């Protein structure tokens, strides 16, 4: 597959046209390379987020996991394969139950971190993913933390400051690339008890154009937070 075709697939996903990306890959005569396989997994992963049918969602996630696992087996140093293996593993382990989800937290974090090391300055998405992971680990209560510590071999730890650093890096790479990044910047500042710094980011998130389901949910949460500031 040519670099121009790979670029076109990436542009389709940047424009939220995941079905077109999937269809284009399906039309290819050779779908065996790592670069094609992780992009196929990416399309399936995002298509799974667009359906409300739970059975269809699960089938798409599991298909995506099979393809991204194959991509990683072909090239363990592939940025895209590591990035989406982490993302899809998180989704798949959630489908497999609470215990499996907790067991896989360390692996999800490790693949995100490896992807960030492979491409530290060119892709804002991986820093956002790692930021969300750090934020969610930081906000768990003591009961959940106790459960995680009892199940996970090496339970991950993080902080709101680490999450903020990730979201800040994402924004520096490509300002305004994702409304949710604005929202999480605001949420991190709120968690760090810095409401003055939080408000401008949350206001941006509340005024963002709705282009996908993530944007709609972002808008809703941002407006709810603004009422409390």
Automatic annotation (TrEMBL):
It comes from the Eukaryota. It is found in: Cytoplasm, Cytoskeleton. One of its GO terms (cellular component) is mitotic spindle pole. GO terms for molecular function: microtubule binding. Keywords: Cytoplasm, Cytoskeleton, Repeat, TPR repeat. Pfam families: RMD1-3. InterPro entries: RMD1-3_a_helical_rpt, TPR-like_helical_dom_sf. PANTHER family: REGULATOR OF MICROTUBULE DYNAMICS PROTEIN, REGULATOR OF MICROTUBULE DYNAMICS PROTEIN 1. Interacts with microtubules. This is Regulator of microtubule dynamics protein 1. It comes from Anopheles darlingi (Mosquito).
